[in-house]
UniProtKB/TrEMBL annotation:
Keywords: ATP-binding, Helicase, Hydrolase, Nucleotide-binding
Name of the protein in question: RNA helicase
UniProt keyword annotation of Nucleotide-binding present: yes
Sequence motif Q motif, location on chain: 1-29
InterPro entries, sorted: DEAD/DEAH_box_helicase_dom (IPR011545), DEAD/DEAH_RhlB (IPR044742), DEAD_box_RNA_helicases (IPR050547), Helicase_ATP-bd (IPR014001), Helicase_C-like (IPR001650), P-loop_NTPase (IPR027417), RNA-helicase_DEAD-box_CS (IPR000629), RNA_helicase_DEAD_Q_motif (IPR014014)
Family: Belongs to the DEAD box helicase family.
Sequence ranges of Basic and acidic residues compositional bias: 372-387
Pfam families registered for this protein in UniProt: DEAD (PF00270), Helicase_C (PF00271)
Molecular functions (GO terms): ATP binding; catalytic activity, acting on DNA; hydrolase activity; RNA binding; RNA helicase activity
EC numbers: 3.6.4.13
Tree of life domain: Archaea
Main enzyme class: hydrolase
Residues of the Helicase C-terminal domain: 214-378
Length: 412
């Protein structure tokens, strides 16, 4: 199926071609025609990197009336980074149509945001807290909204945004299209849909799109004292990617250690100011920085093309976190490589993650022989607490309407 067969106008198709899109992804094939034809609301099960932003952005651009100087679409995101990226993506897809898009989020002065909203904006993308702040100040009017979108709905529920989401929803007209995009389908999503959506369809992309098939996945078993040495072997190749760490402190220490040895590396974590995070991300996106050392704040929403490697310097806690991390590479038809470091005693936890995610992770040639005393120490000292951590990554829900899904079987 081509973009031409989805019902998009020629002006929008020109913008799509200029972006370099050739064929629609699964979520785009299912969502775009349904939004263009009107009718029921939609829940889309899809992760960042599967093209979901274009799936809802293209029909919204088609529907926006530029002559109406009012907010016609509101898009809520869990993080500032994702709000900025969604806004940028919509701008890149609008072509010559005068659709004004603006991102609002905390951590920035509110004055410029107020002035931008006063000038007239058709699409507002933002985090729930700052959106609600503008509503209460009287600087954001949602009475003309035709589209209400929750992006990464499960993440927003995890972060405790439910009250803010409901308060924002009450400020919108009764008649509108409601869309929710979620990587997983926990019961909270169903309850939210039952409360605020009418008849709706669940569109679920295939498992091999949730976990990119273009990513070669491997693990390296290594003792802690050797992790940095092994990491350098990976970085010494043609590396442009993200090294994920467990803590903010580790990102700072590791990035500084890499810089001292001549690597182009920067840290990205939640302790940084929003302005500092945006500058760091911009340098990485423009390849002025080749190595981003990050916590999971970078796992969701960072949309960067051409990332060659993802390194899990610390094993993620859940299968969902693992999938979100490795989803930063292996995109747009290009192969990627994801390498996960495990310490002695973490093999069972890695195997569990692989089973839940439905993926195959092979042993890397970089793995080292582990001394027997290390094996015994770690295997007796570590617990199986991971069995209690986040089975959400394997959630499945088929809503009160039709569900579109294709299952693929992963193996260990």
């Amino acid at each position: 199926m081509s973009f031409e067969s989805l019902g998009l106008s020629e002006a929008t198709l020109v913008a799509v071609r200029q972006k370099g899109f050739e064929t629609p992804t699964d979520i785009q094939r299912e969502v775009i025609p349904r939004l263009l034809s009107g009718g029921v609301d939609i829940i889309g099960q899809s992760q960042t990197g599967t093209g979901k932003t274009a799936a809802f952005a293209l029909p919204i651009i088609e529907a926006i009336d530029p002559k109406v100087k009012a907010v016609q679409a509101i898009i809520l995101t869990p993080t500032r980074e994702l709000a900025l990226q969604v806004a940028d993506e919509i701008k890149s897809l609008r072509g010559r149509k005068r659709v004004y898009v603006y991102a609002v989020y905390g951590g920035q002065p509110i004055g410029p945001q107020i002035r931008a909203l006063e000038r007239g904006t058709h699409v507002v993308v933002g985090t729930p807290g700052r959106i609600l702040d503008h509503i209460r100040r009287g600087t954001l009017d949602l009475s003309s909204v035709r589209f209400f979108i929750l992006d990464e709905a499960d993440r927003m529920l995890d972060m405790g945004f439910i009250d803010a989401i409901e308060a924002i929803f009450r400020e919108t007209p009764r008649r509108k299209r409601v869309l929710m995009f979620s990587a997983t389908m926990p019961p909270e999503i169903r309850r939210l849909a039952g409360r605020y959506m009418g008849d709706y369809e669940v569109v679920s992309v295939s498992s091999d799109e949730l976990v990119p098939e273009m990513v070669d996945q491997e693990y390296v078993e290594v003792v802690p004292a050797r992790k940095f040495t092994v990491l350098k072997k990976i970085l010494d190749g043609d590396f442009y990617g993200i090294v994920f760490c467990a803590t903010k402190r580790e990102t700072r220490e590791l990035s500084e250690k890499l810089r001292r040895q001549g690597y182009s590396a920067e840290a990205l974590n939640g302790d940084m100011s929003q302005a500092a995070r945006e500058r760091t991300f911009w340098r990485f996106k423009t390849k002025r920085t080749r190595i981003l050392v990050a916590t999971d704040v970078a796992a969701r929403g960072l949309d960067v093309q051409d990332i060659s490697h993802i390194v899990n310097y610390s094993l993620p806690m859940t299968a969902e976190d693992y999938v979100h991390r490795i989803g930063r590479t292996g995109r747009m038809g290009k192969r990627g490589r994801a390498i996960t470091f495990i310490m002695p005693g973490e093999f069972k936890r890695l195997r569990y993650i692989a089973q839940v995610a439905g993926v195959e992770i092979r042993k890397s040639e970089l793995s080292e022989e582990i001394p027997k005393e290390y094996q015994e120490r770690y295997e007796h000292g570590r617990s199986d607490g991971y069995r209690r951590s986040g089975r959400r990554g394997n959630s499945r829900y088929s809503g009160n309407s039709r569900s579109y899904s294709k299952n693929s079987r992963g193996r260990w």
